Each structure stands twice: as structure tokens, then as C-alpha cells.
Amino acid sequence: MSGLDLDRPNQIPHAFLTLVGARSCPGVPLCGIAELLDTLVRLAGREIEVEQANKGLTNTYSIGGTTARAIQFLFGTGLKSGAFSNLKLLIEADPRSVLKLITLHEHGALGDPAAPPPNSLNNLPLESAPQWAISWTNYAGVHERATPPTGADPLDTFSAALNPTDPATASRQFWPTIAEYGLGYNLLVLQKVRGGQFAVLKALFGPAWAPAWDAAAAAGLLYVIDLRVFESLTPDTANQRFTPATVTLLVQDPVTKELRAVAVRVTAQGGTQVQVYVESSPAWLYGLQAARTSVTVYGIWLGHVYHWHIVTAAMFLAAGETLPDGSGGTPVHPIRQLLDPQSQYLAAFDEVLLLLWSYVAPPTSVATSWDFLRLMSHFATGRGYFMDDPQATLDRHGITEADFSAQSPWDRYPIVRTFLAVWDATAAYVAAFVDHTYTPAHPPAADAALQAWVNAAADPSVGNVPGLPAGVGTNDELKPLLTSLIYRVTMHGSARLLSTANPGLTFVANYPPCLQNLTVPDPGTPLTQAALFEYLPRTGTIGGMVKFYYTFSFSRPYEPFVPEYGLDANLFFPGGADEPRNAALIAYRRVVQDLIDQLSPVSPPNQSQRYQWPRSIET
User: Fold this and answer.
1) Residues 432 and 561 in one domain
2) Where are the alpha helices (DSSP H) in 298-402?
3) Is pTM, for the whole model, over 0.85?
4) Were 259 and a residue from 248, 250, 376, 521 both cysteine, which residue would form a disulfide, CB within 3.0 to 4.6 Å?
């Protein structure tokens, strides 16, 4: 890596990724120094922007014999760190320090902070279910809407799922939490049990398998969330963070279409500590919380970052190396006109994530940036580019609209409705672009730069993106490739909406980023609520998730997808609003604007949220 030119965009050599065990990871771009410094300034500014939300954590709690405000339990004295500014100063003094920091990060080159001492304010287990509202700020009406004086009360609903004396309620509430709040985590994780999968699952659950599940499978009513992928993860012993690998069985009511969790199989690294929990198990709520944890870690690193950051950045990396950008007297390639406005900031943010792992990354058991890249590689193995598309995923998993619609389409899996709406809008926009750009006289097959881009994206030494076509000859072949890429960028913007994180994700027991006890209890061990909470995230870990979510919810995008000065502002193509590609872009923006209004946490919609959905992947 010592020979890299840091003044221009580049990438971590694939030979180095192979050396550290991340052979199948898509290409990891390194941006130029100027872009990296600009991003560090922007991220430092975001820390200032979220201060109002942090200062709204004013509710008082009594935990561990101490009474204090939420902000003190969550952050202690560590709310401000200056990490972005400090790294900026270091790079300005010695730009080549970037390479040293990346290559040595696994060994603590950046001085990862020590775990908080036992019993400090930010290392305490919570003591009652309502205390999980500790992360709901009084800013922007978050706590107020989650605890209304009348009507549905999210605090009561979420708290009820943490009551060991009412396991049935916990079983019922497991699925709706995913189906309703998994948008920003891209949680297309549910599979209908079919074919050979049935025998595999029956063997995994062994003597715990119930005859009723045979009948459910035969009727097409047995579902699974299989997250054994996390058997590859090493626990973070320094911070006592553990990601269980889980397999969760759910049975569907044929009339109401509701899903109920009926069993959870939990394992640790390498498939050790195998335990199976069912609703009658005294430790059933541990099994459900273990499943919630693996779903959260999947959402953070695989659903969100792999699908929307990593593959996308590799495709943009290849585009930057092959598609003319207008320099040197050559015209800008039309696909660059399409991609460039939505490809800003991603490579720089991903690089900062690698450089400042312990500060930027949410508090999961993925302890280093190289652990992260190894996980990306493990997940990417055998995975094709188009497999990530939402309809392809649903088809592969056997998930149909009819099976998840009771009163209205997809009302038992509402995040799917949003995914497919964005996909359809993206496909319409891309179709207009392709059909106007490529005519029968000038098809994609005749575009040498386009072919070079696709080949570079697939090349193991450049993009290393699996499953791409060997060439793109027709409009119909180009459309799905571009639709998949632009969808990832646009869909990522949904994670920035206030309603995406609040109140469902910020009630961290719904989506724990880790368990904080490395052992898996026997299913027959009775667990009181206090004993259960000893396994769940402690105050400082909750604070780490608050920092993560608030950066999304309470900082402004650098460039919003819906322009503040009208849908016809900041058009991507020359020729004005009537140019067919620009007209399609305006229509695309209108669909996203309407979706934002539908997802608004208040009625009538808070129109400021229209400008909270970013144009690019910034964070």
C-alpha cells in the first residue's frame, strides 16, 4: 500500500484484503486527501448539529442507586471527543498517516478507548422496562409522541415485550417490531420454510421440534429468520459485547396473517453453546432478545452497510476509473451525469469509518475495521449483485403480498411496501434515462466506456462485485443494473427520517446492538426481568446507539434528495425541465416526496422532513 497516490481517489489493494482474510469483500475506495479532510470537517459539524437533541435527554432516572438525567447515564463526560478534528490535524501534518492508520487499525493504532469501569454511570444495566425510554429525547417531540396521554402508547407496547411473566405478549410483538421499524436496516430477512430447508431446520432444532410446526410448514405458514452467519464473529471481550447467531421460527395465523415467534436456536462463535428456547422455556425472553440482537447486527452491517454502502461504493469506484468525467477535452459520459450527483461523500465516509472505527461505528461486537471487512467478505461469498434487489430477495425467500396483506397491501410487513415503491420509482426514472440516452443507432453494446465500467466493477482487482454480466448489450440489460445501483443510494436516504429511528429503534431493547454477557443461559434457567437486563445493553452502550441514531435523525443532509427550492431545481442533465431525463427525475423526486409525507411521524406531515432524505450516501 505504500505506493498509493493519496492525492487522487484510489482503493485498498485487493491483495491486502486477501491478506487480512477479506478476499471476497467488494473493492474499498480510498478518496483523495482533500475530500477526506472535507468530510472530517462536515462530520465535526454534525456533532454540533445534534447537540440540541442530546441536550433534550433531560428526563431523570434512578439506576444503580444513583439518580441522574438520561444524558449523564448515556454519555457520562464523553459526549464531546473532537475525534474528527484530531484526525484532520493528523492527516494535514502527515497525509501518509492514513495508510498506517488503516493497515494497523486492527492492532489498536488509533488508541481505542478503554471500556468504562464497572458500576460507572455509563456501565449500568437498566432496572425496569420503562427505563428503556431513556434514549427518547424531549427535542422535536420524540418523547412526547411516544408517551401520549391518550391512545396507543409505544412505551407500554414496547415495555410489555420485556415482561418474563407474559411470554405470549413477547412472542406476538417480536415480528411487528421488525416489520414496522426495519426500514433503515433493510430487514428483508424473513423466509418461508420450503423444500429442503424444512429438513435442515428440523435437524437444527432436534428434540425441541413440535409436531405443530410440521403442519404449519405443510400449510405454508412456517417462517424462519436464519442468522447463523454470525457464528463467524468473535465476541468483543474487552467491552463484553456478544452477537449471538440465531435461527428463529415463526408461525403465521392463516386468517389475521400475524406472525408469532415460537422457537429460537442460539449459538456462539463456531456454533458453540447451542441452546433452543420455546415459549414455555423459563428463559424464553432471553431467546427472543438474542434473536433481536442478531437481527439488529444484521441490519447495521449487512442489511444497511453491505447492501447500501459497500457494493455501491465499489460500483462507483469502477465508474470513476472508466467513465469519462469531462476532463481533458472529452465530454462527460451520460452515465456519469446520472450517477455523479448521487455518488458524493460515500467513499470518504466509509474511509472515516475504517479510520475511526471505535468512535464512528455503533457498539456491536464487531470490534475492528478488519473484523468488519472480514464479515463483509463472508457475507459476499457466493452472493450476486442482483440478489440484493428487493423483489429478487422476496422471491428467493418465498414472501408474497398475498401472505402479508390483511386489510391493505403489505400491512403485515409494511416496510416492504416502501421498498417496492422506491424500487418502482427508481426503475421508471432509469428507464427514461436509458431509452433517451441509448437509441437503436447507438445501443449500449457500442459504448466502450460502459463496457469497461461493468468489467472493472466485476474485476477482482477493482470492484470485485460478484454476479455482474460479462457485458451489457441492450437497453433492457442496462436498466436493471442501473436501477439496482441508484435504488441503493436513494433507499439509504430513508434512514435519515425522524420516524425511521424514533421511537422504535431508539427504544434499544427492541434492537439491541449486542448482548453484554458472553454466555448463553440454559433455557430452563428462570430469568427475572433484572436477570434478563444483565444480558442486555448497558447505559453506555445505549448511549452509543443514541449517538448513532441521532446523527441520522437530527443532522441535516449536505444535499437533500428533494431540493429545497422546488422539484425542478438542481437538475442533473442539460436542457431544462422538459428534457425527458430531467422530467423523469422530477417525477422521481415527487414520488419520494410523497413517501416522506406518508412516513412523517405527525399529521399533517412535517414538511421539513422532505429535506431530511439525502441525495447521496453521506453517513
Assistant:
1) yes
2) 311-322, 334-339, 346-355, 357-360, 369-380, 390-397
3) yes
4) 250
